[in-house]
Amino acid sequence: MTPDRRSCIHRILVIDDHADIHEDVKKILGVTGCTSSLTNAKAALFGDGDTPTPRQSGHRFQVDAALQGEEGFKMVEAAKNEGRPYSLVLVDMRMPPGWDGVETIRHIWACDPDVQTVICTAYSDYSLDQILDQLGSSDRLLILKKPFDTVEILQLANALCEKWILHREAAVKMDQLERMVQERTAQIEHAMLHDKLTGLGNRTLLAERLAAAIERRRRHPDYRFAVLFLDFDRFKLINDSLGHEVGDLLLIEISSRLTSSLRATDMISHSTMPIRVGGDEFIVLLDDYREEPDAARVAQRLLDALSVPYLLNAQKLHLTASMGIATSERDYQNPADIIRDADTAMYRAKARGRARFVMFDANMHEEVATRLDMENAMRKAMHDSEFLLHYQPIVRLDTGRVTGFEALLRWNHAERGTLSAAELIPIAEETGIILPLGLWVLREACTQLCAWRKQYPEADRLVMSINLSRRQLLDPELVNQIHAIVSGAGLPRGSLVLEITESTVLEDPIEAIKTFERIKDLGIWLHLDDFGTGHSSISCLYQFPLAGMKIDRAFLRNVLTSKPHAVVLEAIISMARAFDLQIIAEGVETEEQADFLRRLGVGHAQGFYFGRPTDPASAEKLIQSGMAPAAKRELAGVAT
Asked: How many CB atoms lie within 10 A of CB 517?
């Protein structure tokens, strides 16, 4: 605590084996004056005014005395322990038969390093250099030669007590500053290691703890740990539809449930730690668990706790999580690898239906390695222009004439031959390559259609159909990019069809509708692809600005032998007509299927019966003839 100059009575200790010295010092310092020590010093040095008397002292003093060094040391020690330390100690150099002044000061400083000290001596037993050799150089030590007078004692007492106060004030301020620095440092360190919204640990803290766990596993093979990677199903839909404020409240509630649920794992693991790694992704580090099935038990407990409905702003929200688990059994060497494998298992859980957990295994690792190789090869193929488009004709069933083509992606792989879109698109979607690849498909197909329209008069009404992926739909620049490509190719309105599936819009149908409306305003048609294979096809018919639908090949496969299939197909066609949609049946492979569709009044079809996907040169022959080969055969049969 900082001393108060107005009320402080300085305690001074005189250690001298002559009692008369004690009395002399007490007489000099024993009366309180009112003038400042600075004034007294000035008067003494420069003769301004009378010689100061005890009543002119700037500080008040209490003088104690000891006859021997050891006795004085004990008094200093007691004063320090009582919280009333001495400001100044006057020590005689010779005090036989006990400690001399140097030994006494050495002990006193070890007990109270702040006390100011004066050696009083009439002899030359020690030179100044010898004293400094034994005690060290210090600003706490002065030497006063005996005999001394009133002015010397008074000046030293006032000056050194003032110095003692300043030193104490500085020490207090330094302590306060150090505490502030420590508190601020702790705050910064906490902010660096914890998520601001939820208070959970962040990626940095996770990396530190995982690195420590991996090192411990290396030293103790029996030690086990696991990473549980959680991602919430449909969180983006809730976040976007109800607002980010509700989304933040939901994340806070999720964090609270994770923390509460993990407290119940004490019998399974010595330590668990929930981490928010970003967005709606969380990781739980299960540390030092006992048995392999324990990780699965913790995972199921968490999924159960997180699936209980959330009540936020008087709204009940239903939310589930998908989880991937990677354990230390694979002897990971760095934190990124185990996080990656847990993330891979989490995506496998989503693919298997969500709201479940999946344990990472060796097969997944091989699949990931294969997929990574494929990703790298695809990026190289983009750079080396190894992708190409094939075109499958779409025909009018009543005339057999070719009315358009669907552009289908192909890859001339150096080792595996020609790969289809079905093999490419899932990897392209997952890795993000679909964005530049999708734009390339759009640009290439539009450029090709424009060239055909200019070269062949009979192609002036051809339409090009192109598939739109889920990742493309999430790109905020998609509509502007489509507009630039179509305008650059010089295609008129009504020349382009974009095909979408239900899966492309399930995560965020509201934003999808806005995007579709903007695409429609560009004069581009939207068709619903693979109708009937999803969970909400009927709702898509009246929610989205559709111009047509494609009947999936699954409905044609048994339509001639199964009455239920025929009934369902007829119902689909009736619904499409009710919504005034163009109908295209895909997957037509036989003449009997084509005849059945004609009888139901289906307008357009595509499939192997009319023509397989083919290169641009072969497609041009169809344009020149104006009719698919199968349609020509049918007409020839009718003529015969």
From this structure: 13
**Span 101-155, pLDDT tens digits:** 899 999 999 999 889 999 888 766 677 777 777 887 777 788 888 887 788 888 8
H-run or E-run covering 521: helix 509-521
Q: Using an 8 Å Cβ cutoff, are 88 and 155 in contact?
A: no
Greatest Cα pair distance in the chain: 150
Rounded CA separation 41/163 (Å)? 14
Measured in degrees and rounded to the nearest 5, phi and psi for residue 402 equal -75, 120
Contact by Cβ (8 Å): 309, 218:
no
pLDDT, mean over the chain: 85
SS3 content of the chain, % helix, strand, coil (to 5): 50, 20, 25
Structure-token match 């420069």, residue found: 46
Residue 7 one-letter amino acid: S
Q: Sheet harboring 60-66: ordered strands across?
A: 60-66, 9-15, 88-92, 116-121, 141-145
This prediction's pTM: 0.56
Structure tokens at 150: 């009133």
Helix-then-strand count for the chain, H and E: 22, 21
Say how far apart CA 320 and CA 606 lie, in whole Å. Answer: 40
Burial class (CB in 10 A: 0-12, 13-18, 19+), 110: exposed
Give the C-alpha separation, 391 to 414, whole Å.
Answer: 22
Copy the structure tokens of residue 509: 């149908």
**CB of 303 closer than 8 Å to CB of 322:** no
Are the C-beta atoms of residues 408 and 420 closer than 8 Å to each other? yes
Query: Distance between CA atoms of 181 and 163, rounded to whole angstroms?
Result: 26
**% of the chain with per-residue pLDDT over 90:** 46
Q: Is 621 in a helix, a strand, or coil?
A: helix
Contact 455, 488 (CB under 8 A): no
**pLDDT tens figures, 297-347:** 899 999 999 999 999 888 888 899 999 999 999 899 999 999 999 999 998
- Span 524-537, mean pLDDT? 74
What phi and psi values does residue 232 have, to the nearest 5 degrees? -85, 135
- What does the block give as tokens for 125? 């037993």
Closest CA to 360 of 304, 299, 307, 306: 299
Residue 425 has phi, psi (to 5 degrees) of -60, -45
Give the Cα separation of 101 and 90 in Å (integer): 10
Q: Which residues 6+ apart lie within 8 Å of 565 measured at CB?
A: 555, 557, 558, 559
495's tokens: 């020349």
Helical packing angle, 616-625 and 434-455, nearest 10°: 40
Distances from the Cα of 16 to the Cαs of 126, 215, 490, in angstroms? 17, 63, 110
CA-CA distance, 27 to 170, in Å (whole number)? Answer: 32
pLDDT digits (tens, 9 = 90+) for 454-512: 999 888 889 999 999 888 888 889 999 999 999 999 999 999 999 998 777 666 677 88
